[in-house]
Amino acid sequence: MEIAFYNGEFLQEVDEKIIPIQERGHQFGDGVYEVVRVYNNKPFMLEEHLDRFQKSAEAILLQLPYTRQELTEIIDQGVKRSQEKNVDVYFQVTRGIAPRLHLFPNTKAVFSMTIKPSRPIDPAKKESGVAVLLLEDERWKNCYIKSLNLLPNVIAKQHAASRGCDEAILVKDGSITEGSSSNLFVIKDGTIYTTPATKGILHGITRLAVFQLAEKMELPIKEQHFTEEFLLQADEAFITSTTQEILPINKVDEFEIPTHYTITKKLQNEFLKLTK
Ligand SMILES: Cc1ncc(COP(=O)(O)O)c(C=O)c1O
């Protein structure tokens, strides 16, 4: 069953039309969000997601309307109500409902959430990889904030799809930052490389899981800025995100990437064990 929660209440239907016109999330994108995947009734890396949620809220000077304990309980309750074992939980907090003025209103922040069965990942993509398109990163300087403002990401993803690609890989000042909704990893001569967790990328939770797995598996992993050419010469490359998990890359623009995926497959297998 699909579940929705808005401003303190569970709703009858996910599609219930209840967002007030003067909701600042709707009018300004004035809020932040998270997405957590639940495997077998257990939210994966929930504490890390809640840490990032808190950091994102603090970065936009927004006070969360619930304590961490309360957030955990609302999520748990929602998952139970859904009666599903494997779900995607999206939750956001906005600066509330107030007359349309740029200045922060004196209102309480509003928390909302949807819970739906996990979007399946195409097994062919897990196995054989996805094509990606290189595009300029046109976003702001604070991409570490998981902001509701996703316009450049949405447009980049759409451009990629219109060229038959699954993801847009963003490039800023000659360096790759990340995907439009994923982090990027490149493997060269046995070492795994990814862009450093600066303010210019989202500090992905799946990215963090890959670091933990690499450490456990004694695979060398490095945070380093790199160029499009480095990606094109990769032995393997993959993207990560909560809903896409670990997906190999088989093509960058019109260039093929090797498809043996030796290390990527090992990481996928270990990730599967973590989430089983
Ligand atoms: C821009 C961007 N980078 C990276 C990620 C991956 O983050 P996570 O692994 O926490 O889902 C996402 C996920 O939505 C994203 O939107």
UniProtKB/TrEMBL annotation:
Query: Its function?
Result: Acts on the D-isomers of alanine, leucine, aspartate, glutamate, aminobutyrate, norvaline and asparagine. The enzyme transfers an amino group from a substrate D-amino acid to the pyridoxal phosphate cofactor to form pyridoxamine and an alpha-keto acid in the first half-reaction.
The record's annotation in Pfam families points to: Aminotran_4 (PF01063)
Quaternary assembly: Homodimer.
- GO-annotated molecular function: D-alanine-2-oxoglutarate aminotransferase activity
The record's similarity note reads:
Belongs to the class-IV pyridoxal-phosphate-dependent aminotransferase family.
Origin, by domain of life?
A: Bacteria
The record's top EC class is transferase
- Which keywords fit this entry according to its UniProt record? Aminotransferase, Pyridoxal phosphate, Transferase
NCBIfam families tied to this protein: D_amino_aminoT
Looking up InterPro entries in the UniProt record yields:
Aminotrans_IV, Aminotrans_IV_CS, Aminotransferase-like, BCAT-like_C, BCAT-like_N, Class-IV_PLP-Dep_Aminotrnsfr, D_amino_transT
Q: Identify this protein by name.
A: D-alanine aminotransferase
Q: Which CDD domains match?
A: D-AAT_like
Q: Which cofactor does it need?
A: pyridoxal 5'-phosphate
Enzyme Commission number(s) = 2.6.1.21
Q: Is this entry keyworded Signal?
A: no
Q: Which reaction does it catalyse?
A: D-alanine + 2-oxoglutarate = D-glutamate + pyruvate
Signal peptide extent: none
